[in-house]
Design brief:
The complex is a heterodimer of chains A (280) and B (464). With 280 residues, chain A is α/β, with parallel strands linked by helices. Chain A has helices spanning 23-28, 69-75, 110-123, 143-149, 168-178, 190-200, 236-239, 250-257, 261-274; strands at 3-12, 15-21, 34-38, 46-49, 52-54, 59-65, 82-83, 85-90, 101-107, 127-134, 152-157, 164-165, 183-187, 206-210, 226-229, 232-235, 242-244. A 7-stranded mixed β-sheet of chain A has the order 12-11-10-9-13-14-17, with helices on both faces. In chain A, strands 5-6-2-1-7 form a 5-stranded antiparallel β-sheet. In chain A, strands 4-3-8 form a 3-stranded antiparallel β-sheet, with no helix packed on it. Helices cover 33% and strands 17% of the residues of chain B. In chain B, helix 3 (59-67) runs antiparallel to helix 4 and helix 5 (85-91) runs antiparallel to helix 8 (113-126). The chains are: A alpha/beta (280), B alpha/beta (464).
């Protein structure tokens, strides 16, 4: 089995969209599910949400932000290159059904993860309002796709270069005041998901977040991804990745995301050294 | 009576040297040592050793062959029953199986059967010999799916392939071997030994598909639709247990599965050449006292920990690890904190482990396991400074595949219930190894794999 890249588009300076041959996964993956991949033999196993599936073509699409060594390696690949290992789909799919009016919130590369959820919710007959945000206009991805996937789209940027200046939570708060929202789905950086949870908590609006914690096997075997939800230890890989945002211990989650910061830095340095043209 | 020959000791890397590398600790017998050890065998008329072997190896005969310096003959005898001698010779608990039954053991030390088995496998490898059973029966054309490429799955697949079936192993990880790959460290089982044995399996005609999580990537029903007529579930124990004490999600607390998977499967000991990190502090505590705990403790030393402590609630006598592993760990400087139970893990403001509060125990009456129960000593609490904690207190059945098969009957521990033929509540679906018994040994899983192969064969013959 080889996982060949059939198409690569750079969405902006640090985010790539990859279409990859993976027929078994393309047939199976549902919104909210993820895969684990290993770029090459020395590579890490990293989880990535499936952006889109094309069962006919036997391909899946991933949207990848360069952050650590693995994602740098991944974004360094081009069409016709292959990825060593991909396994999935993993995790429990997002519960798609008719809720009424739903709010889909995506921040940064999290927009790629909220997109399939928004599209599926729309198909299931919901009125879908989407709020997406990024630091600035050039970092904002999938605006057109998100506009097509839902009924209304609101955009925020930290610097005001596109849409409203501010955070997604500013818009979420206003929408919660003037609309009857049945459920909120939010994917993005932890502070954003936590912020959305705090907006909806006082109003008791059900809020689902998709967590992306550090994993190794992704099948419930190692417990690396554990998170406290409603006072109980859950494994994001098999019990999630979706959880009730009001029950997630975001403080602990934030601390646990920093478990390998030093090593990640060392690994990036090592990677860059190996990729400097003048390197001896 | 021939003069008494002492049991030949196993050459090993010097402890001071070996804690600095991940190379194999036990170096294996030389030809001379193997010959001397083989000559200790009395060649009993009714050899009891064989009754202690879960896969029924004709031990006496292979030792006789070593005596006669017919090493290829010895390999053939072993391979009649066991496809993985290089692995079993290294990781089987012989002292509680074949060697326990050896008559010599009554007055003296038993014949070192495991070391001789390993010798034969390594000799064959070093000299380019192997035995691939060419006497394959004609292909039956029937397809069998084996789920999990650990010791049980590999064994079952080999036996079924030899019987002429078209066998495919589906493995969830990116590499074969199961616990042999992700659990047992390089210094105890070099991965090239595993690779060699898996390669021989492929030459038997077994098809191996990695990166397939049955239940997620494909279901058992879908596999039936693709023509698979029988199944062997050998997914092992794969759900780590934690203690349930405060502070277990602090940074620096690992399950043994995570710690060892990072090191063994992902080769974190080669970081940053390999991308997967593992961090160990100056002081490491490993909770538990089985083989997995010993492996974790010894791996931590090799990663540069200054002080590694095993924390165990009972006494040394009750430690479930093999004596040999405990000895190796002690030689390397692992400390034992016995009769000690962790109460809570203490962290700093940034969420990192700084210490663990423990309590002393004394031994009370025997519990259900027959071992004396640890009873808390009031007022004995104390603080142990540590920056890394590895929980090696066992594991339960991984629910991933099981939840995709709701019609599968489970027992009260969540393990799969099987009948005397290892068939589950679903016709044609068999199961064996840790997913049935709970966490046990490599060789027991292999024994289940052999038994399942026999029964799957019988099932398919009758269901024609």
């Amino acid at each position: 089995m080889s996982y060949r890249i059939v198409k690569k588009i750079r969405l902006h300076s640090s985010v790539c969209r990859l279409e990859i041959q993976a027929p078994e996964i393309a047939r199976k993956a549902l919104p909210g599910q993820f895969i684990i991949l290993r770029v090459d033999e020395p590579g890490e196993r990293i989880p990535l949400t499936v952006y889109q599936c094309h069962p006919q073509q036997g391909t899946i699409e991933l949207i990848v932000q360069e952050a650590g060594t693995s994602t740098l390696k991944l974004c360094g690949l081009n069409a016709d290159d292959t990825i060593l290992d991909i396994v999935g789909p993993l995790g429990i799919a997002t519960e798609i059904k008719k809720y009424g009016t739903v709010l889909c919130v995506g921040g940064g590369v999290g927009i790629a993860e909220i997109y399939p959820v928004a599209a599926a919710l729309k198909q299931a007959g919901n009125r879908v309002i989407s709020v997406i945000g990024a630091r600035s206009k050039d970092l904002l991805i999938l605006e057109r796709e998100m506009r097509q996937a839902g009924d209304d789209l609101f955009i925020t940027t930290d610097d005001g270069s596109s849409g409203r200046k501010g955070f997604v939570t500013d818009v979420v708060k206003e929408l919660l005041e003037r609309e009857t929202i049945a459920v909120v789905f939010a994917v993005g950086p932890i502070p954003m998901m936590r912020g959305v949870a705090e907006c909806t908590r006082p109003l008791k609006v059900k809020t689902i977040v998709s967590l992306n914690s550090i994993m190794v096997d992704g099948t419930g075997m190692c417990g690396s991804c554990r998170v406290t939800v409603a006072g109980k230890v859950k494994f994001v890989c098999v019990d999630g990745p979706d959880f009730d945002a009001h029950e997630v211990d975001f403080r602990e989650l934030t601390l646990r995301q920093g478990r390998f910061l030093e090593a990640e830095q060392a690994s990036r340095n090592d990677y860059h050294e190996g990729h400097t043209p003048c390197h001896q | 009576m021939s003069p008494v020959i002492e049991r030949q000791s196993m050459p090993a890397q010097d402890p001071a040297e070996r804690v600095k590398n991940f190379k194999e600790v036990a170096l294996g017998y030389t030809l001379e040592q193997a010959g001397r050890e083989a000559r200790r065998c009395l060649g009993c008329k009714n050899p009891l050793c064989r009754t202690g072997c879960p896969v029924d190896i004709d031990i006496k005969s292979f030792i006789q062959a070593i005596k006669a310096e017919d090493y290829l003959g010895a390999l053939k005898i072993i391979k009649e029953k066991n496809n993985l001698p290089g692995i079993c010779g290294r990781v089987c608990p012989q002292e509680s199986q074949c060697e326990k039954e050896c008559i010599l053991g009554i007055k003296n030390k038993p014949v070192a059967i495991g070391r001789l088995e390993r010798f034969v496998a390594d000799w064959a490898d070093a000299n380019g010999f192997d035995v691939v059973d060419a006497s394959r029966k004609e292909l039956s054309g029937k397809k069998i799916a084996v789920i999990g490429a650990g010791p049980g799955g590999l064994t079952c697949a080999a036996d079924l392939a030899k019987r002429g079936y078209a066998v495919t192993i589906f493995e969830g990880l990116h590499a074969t071997g199961g616990v042999l790959r992700y659990g047992i460290p390089e210094f105890r089982l070099p991965k090239k030994i595993l690779d060699r044995e898996v390669d021989l399996l492929k030459r038997l005609g077994v098809n191996i598909e990695v990166n397939v999580v049955v239940g997620k990537t494909v279901t058992v029903e879908e596999l039936r639709g693709r023509g698979f007529q029988a199944f062997f579930i050998a997914t092992g124990a794969g759900l780590p247990s934690f203690l349930g004490i405060p502070g277990e999600n602090l940074n620096g607390v690992y399950s043994a599965n995570e710690f060892l998977t990072r090191i063994n499967l992902m080769k974190a000991y080669n970081f940053p050449r390999y991308d997967t990190p593992v961090s160990v502090g100056e002081q490491v505590c490993v909770i538990g006292a089985g083989n997995v705990a010993m492996d974790s403790a010894r791996a931590a030393l090799r990663l540069g920990a200054r002080e590694v402590t095993i924390v165990y609630r009972r006494s040394e006598q009750e430690m479930p690890a093999r004596v040999e592993e405990i000895e190796h760990a002690k030689e390397e400087g692992v400390r034992l904190y016995l009769l000690t139970s962790p109460l809570r893990i203490i962290g700093d403001e940034k969420g990192w482990v700084r210490a663990m509060e423990c309590r002393r125990n004394e031994l009370g009456e025997p519990d259900a396991s027959g071992r004396r129960r640890p009873v808390a000593v009031p007022g004995s609490e104390f603080i142990l400074n540590t920056q890394t904690i590895v929980c090696a207190i066992g594991q339960g059945p991984n629910p991933l595949l099981l939840s995709s098969l709701p019609q599968l009957t489970l027992n009260k521990h969540g393990n799969i219930s099987v009948d005397e033929n290892l068939m589950t509540s679903i016709p044609g679906v068999f199961a064996g190894g840790d997913i049935v018994t709970g966490a046990a040994t490599v060789i027991e899983a292999m024994g289940a794999g052999k038994k399942a192969a026999q029964n799957i064969d019988a099932y398919l013959r009758n269901s024609r």
